[in-house]
C-alpha cells in the first residue's frame, strides 16, 4: 500500500545518525530475535503490538532487563496510560506517543516528550497549522474542547493540504509548564468514523479503556461487540482478567470464582453507567482470550449489526 510510516521513521532516524533495522509488521519470533541479537535501543510500533511483545517475552521467559532497548515510540492507534504502564513494565522502556498521517508528512506531525507523559504531544507549528473543529458544522472549537483535528500544511511543496480532515478526535492546548512553546494535542480519543451512537449516546472505545485503569484486576485487553436486538443497538464489553489474578483464582472453589467474576463485571458496569451513561453487559474472560495485535492496528470494535 501507500502507508509511509516505516519509510518516514527510517529516513528520519538515519538523518540523526542512527542505524535502522526495518523489520516490517508481525513475525513476533523474528522481532524478539532481533531485540536480543541486534540490541536496538529504540523500538517503534503500534502500542497494541508492543503489548503483544511484552506478553510474549513473559511467556518465553525472556528477561526484559537484559535487553538494550530503552525507548518505545508508539503510534498509529489510540492508547491509554494503562497500556503505557503495561508496555513500560513489560519491556523496561520509556514509552512515548508519536502522531502522523501519510497525507500530511507521515510520522512526526507531533511527538510526546519522554519527560512529559500524559500532557499531550507537541505539534510542530512551524510546519503545520492545526485546528479542532465541530464534526457536524466544521466550525473551529476553543482550546481544550474535543473535536475533529484538521491540518493546513505551511511548508509542504509537492502536495500541500488546506484544512485536511483527519477524522481523529482530540483537543488542542498550550502547556505553560511544558518545555516547548508549540501547541499540544491531547491523546487521540477515537475517530469520527469509528464513533458509535448507542441509544443517542456518543461512544468511543477509548472511553471504556480509560475506565479499566481504575480496576487493577482487569487487563487492558478488551473488545466492544456491537449487536442489534430488535430496533435497539447493544454493546457488550469483553475484557480479560490480569494473568496473576487468573492464577490466584485457580485455587478457589468454582462458586467463589463465579462470585468474584460477577463482582468485577458489576464494578465495571457501574463505572460505565456513571461515566458514559450506558448500561453494557460485561463478559469477563480468561487472560489471553481476546485477539492480540500481530503487527498492525488492533480493532477494538466488533460490529455484528447487519446495517
Note down, in words, how this protein is organized.
The protein is an alpha+beta fold and 307 residues long. The protein contains seven helices and 17 strands. It has helices spanning 5-15, 28-37, 47-60, 81-91, 205-212, 243-249, 254-275, and strands at residues 42-45, 71-74, 94-101, 106-111, 121-123, 128-133, 147-153, 164-170, 172-173, 184-185, 190-191, 196-198, 201-203, 218-229, 232-241, 282-285, 301-303. The strands form four sheets. The chain has a seven-stranded mixed sheet with strand order 1-2-3-4-5-10-9. Strands 6-7-8-11 form a four-stranded antiparallel sheet, with no helix packed on it. Helix 3 (47-60) packs parallel to helix 4 (81-91). The longest helix is centred in the last third of the chain and has 22 residues, at 254-275.
Write the layout of secondary structure elements.
Elements lengths: L4 H11 L12 H10 L4 E4 L1 H14 L10 E4 L6 H11 L2 E8 L4 E6 L9 E3 L4 E6 L13 E7 L10 E7 L1 E2 L10 E2 L4 E2 L4 E3 L2 E3 L1 H8 L5 E12 L2 E10 L1 H7 L4 H22 L6 E4 L15 E3 L4
Parallel strand pairs: 1-2, 2-3, 14-17, 15-16
Antiparallel strand pairs: 3-4, 4-5, 5-10, 6-7, 7-8, 8-11, 9-10, 12-13, 14-15
Provide the descriptors you would attach to this structure in a database record.
single chain; 307 residues; alpha+beta; Rossmann fold; GMP Synthetase, Chain A, domain 3; seven-stranded mixed β-sheet; 17 strands; 28% strand; globular
Amino acid at each position: 500500500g501507500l502507508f509511509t510510516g516505516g519509510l518516514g521513521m527510517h529516513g528520519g532516524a538515519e538523518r540523526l545518525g542512527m542505524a535502522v533495522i526495518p523489520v516490517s509488521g508481525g513475525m513476533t519470533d523474528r522481532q524478539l530475535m532481533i531485540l536480543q541479537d541486534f540490541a536496538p535501543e529504540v523500538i517503534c510500533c503500534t502500542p497494541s503490538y508492543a503489548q503483544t511483545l511484552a506478553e510474549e517475552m513473559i511467556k518465553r521467559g525472556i528477561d526484559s532487563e537484559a535487553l538494550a532497548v530503552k525507548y518505545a515510540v508508539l503510534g498509529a492507534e489510540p492508547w491509554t496510560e494503562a497500556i503505557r504502564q503495561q508496555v513500560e513494565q513489560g519491556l523496561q522502556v520509556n514509552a512515548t506517543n508519536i502522531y502522523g498521517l501519510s497525507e500530511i508528512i507521515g510520522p512526526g506531525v507531533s511527538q510526546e516528550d519522554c519527560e512529559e507523559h500524559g500532557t499531550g504531544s507537541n505539534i510542530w507549528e512551524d510546519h503545520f497549522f492545526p485546528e479542532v473543529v465541530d464534526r457536524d458544522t466544521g466550525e473551529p472549537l476553543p482550546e481544550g474542547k474535543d473535536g475533529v483535528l484538521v491540518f493546513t500544511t505551511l511548508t509542504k511543496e509537492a502536495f500541500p493540504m488546506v484544512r485536511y480532515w483527519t477524522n481523529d478526535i482530540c483537543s488542542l492546548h498550550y502547556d505553560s509548564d511544558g518545555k516547548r512553546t508549540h501547541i499540544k494535542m491531547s491523546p487521540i480519543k477515537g475517530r469520527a468514523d469509528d464513533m458509535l451512537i448507542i441509544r443517542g449516546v456518543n461512544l468511543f472505545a477509548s472511553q471504556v479503556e480509560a475506565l479499566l485503569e481504575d480496576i487493577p484486576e482487569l487487563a487492558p485487553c478488551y473488545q466492544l461487540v456491537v449487536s442489534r436486538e430488535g430496533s435497539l443497538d447493544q454493546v457488550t464489553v469483553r475484557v480479560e482478567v490480569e494473568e496473576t489474578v487468573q492464577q490466584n483464582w485457580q485455587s478457589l472453589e468454582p462458586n467463589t470464582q463465579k462470585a468474584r467474576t460477577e463482582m468485577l463485571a458489576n464494578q465495571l458496569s457501574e463505572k460505565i453507567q456513571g461515566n458514559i451513561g450506558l448500561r453494557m453487559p460485561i463478559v469477563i474472560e480468561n487472560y489471553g482470550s481476546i485477539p492480540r495485535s500481530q503487527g498492525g492496528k488492533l480493532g477494538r470494535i466488533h460490529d455484528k449489526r447487519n446495517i
